[in-house]
Here is the input.
Amino acid sequence: MPTPIGHALGGIAAGVLVAGRTTQPVSVGERSWSLLWVWALCGMLPDVDFLIGGHRGMTHTLGAMLAVGFGAALIARRRPAVWYAAAASYGTHLLLDWLGVDTVVPHGIMALWPFGDTFYVSAYGVFPAVCRQYWLVDCWVDLMQAVAWELLLLGPVAAAAVLFMRRR
Ligand SMILES: [Zn+2]
Here is the structure.
């Protein structure tokens, strides 16, 4: 599974692809959020379940992706491109996790919930498993290699998306 960096890059690429060249920030209360930050956060958001001790549960599902799109509709009421882009950015997390190696049982993600509770994982292993034994030097070496691979694979796509967005 990718690191948060890979998920942020995937979220940015999908958000720009769906929302296009719009750069108007999203306002939540009195605070404005750059769309690139919103797309990156949506890409990383499913792993929030780490904070409650789980992983790859309900936050890694189609249902959660639709809920994020609905939440975006409540926040940015008259901007449907933001709704779809937020859901798409969130959805890249599911795709990238599906493409990654998963060493934790149950393997994969319950991608289609609430329409089914089967766990899915691809056979491609595009992204290596992320080491969580942070006290080991080898773990940090593995993490750096994983980030380098993600930057190589997803960095150009996200950079192209940002250039496209900013080009006038
Ligand atoms: Zn995840």
Observations:
- Helices lie at 4-19, 35-44, 62-75, 80-99, 137-166.
- The chain is about 55% helix and 5% strand.
- The chain has a mean pLDDT of 93.
- The radius of gyration is 16 Å.
